[in-house]
Amino acid sequence: MTELIEQFSSELAARTAALQGAVAAIRLPRGRYVSAILWRPDVVVASEQSLPEREEFDLVLPGGAQAKARLAGRDAGTNIAALRLTQPAAPPVLAPGEAQAGALALALGADGSGGVSARLGLVNLAGPQWHSLAGGLIDRRIALDLRLARAEEGGPVFSAAGAFLGMSTFGARVRVLVIPAATLERIVPLLLKDGRVARGWLGVALHPVAVPDALHATAGQPSGMMVMSLAEGGPAAKAGIVPGDIVLSVNGAQALGFRRIAAQLAADSIGRTAALRVVRGGSVLSLDAVVGARPAA
Amino acid sequence: MSAAPQVALAVVLRVLVRATDPARREAMRKLVVDAGHLPVDSPSAADVVLSDQVHAGFAAMPEHGGQSLFTPRELEVLGAIGDGLTNKMIARRLDISPHTVKFHVESLLRKLGARTRAEAVAKAREHRLSNTVEL
Fold first, then answer.
1. Overall number of domains in chain A
2. Are residues A64 and A174 in the same domain?
3. Is B5 contained in some domain?
4. Taking CB atoms and an 8 Å limit, are B135 and A202 in contact across chains?
């Protein structure tokens, strides 16, 4: 038995040693740092929410070499930031793999001086795609059954076989989530090319409300989204929406949940007309808004 | 000489205020100014960030499948409770009968699972923050 445990342990250590070349540290103010992935020889990927708003960053590469990187783009919607190294490094090739609930996951972080830190846990959840509060689509919902230090956020997560599952990050209530490799493959090239991920924008803050009984028949649905606030000069404001309006549908998609509306605001919706059905003062109105581009967070 | 105690500020902090709701952002800014600190617009110029986000971290877009929603009128009553108004005052403000107000308040407490008005206001605030999405 002892042999099996020793074997397991040394395999993990060997795996960590083989993959630590993919882990970099990004220096933050006051001596702090956060982890990042050497995704390609000249591209570093990090957790968007962990990075201060800056253009240039100092990095510590695997082995301890100092490096500089420029921000290529950041997307709050998928929580991905891409940086370009001024001098290319030599990271190991990351072979993407699929997360499986119940399987082991190895989460690596940077130690701030060129070394690596490691965490082992189960893939707690490997669910379907999901939308973030910031409007991004993440290909799979992957949660890990392990703890992560603040500085370890943004590091790579691997399967027991060494396949690259994605980037670690903190979700609501400090739950450790993984931004899947597939989402990085989709978003990072857009960030390198355009510096941002375009998303449609109406400029409204919406809150679900029950449609008053008296209006059930007219509205034809039990609930909608009340406009709590409006971005000044935003698409909805220009279309004549006012706070207190209850949005019933956008382009015919009933406003029964946020995802249905978010789905109407993909990148290709920018510049198009969105037909809004709203309840105001007891009657139903139809208004047209020209979908804008969501401003950077 | 007046003996009024003077509170000396040890430091003036540069504060970045973060809130999705513009009215809320303005209220938070005012709070910062009243406290003698300096609101700034750029994160790089800020010493601290004051945010209205209850849960830090990359959160999922909520879906309200099945949970009970408030009606617009209930939201108005909730706002009035938050302003510290009594049922009688709420009735006057919304131009409805005190009996109707009582009905709405009871419905609110039930939906929120709250025992007191103060608890309802606190729970409603959290509910609103985590269920308001900017699109």
1. 2
2. yes
3. no
4. yes
Range(s) of the domain holding residue B100? 72-130
- Whole-prediction pTM value? 0.76
Burial class (CB in 10 A: 0-12, 13-18, 19+), A49: buried
Last residue of a domain, one of A194, A220, A244: A194
Of A52, A132, A206, the CB nearest to B58: A132
Facing B135 at nearest CB: one of A175, A206, A212? A206
The pLDDT tens digits for A62-87 are 999 999 999 999 998 899 999 999 99
- Determine the average pLDDT of the residues in B59-83: 81
Output the domain CATH number for residue B107: 1.10.10.10
Check CB contact under 8 Å for A265 and B62: no
B88 backbone φψ class: left, alpha, beta (φ>0; ψ -120 to 50): alpha
pLDDT, tens digit, 9 for 90 and up, residues B19-54: 766 677 788 888 888 888 888 877 667 777 777 654
Write down which residue in A168, A194, A220 finishes a domain: A194
**What ipTM was reported for this prediction?**
0.70
Which burial class, exposed, middle or buried, applies to A124 when counting CB atoms under 10 A from its CB (0-12, 13-18, 19+)? middle
Name the helix (H) or strand (E) containing B93: helix B87-94
Same domain, A20 and A139: yes
Are A133 and B22 a contacting pair at CB < 8 A? no
**A266 contacts on B by Cβ (under 8 Å):** none
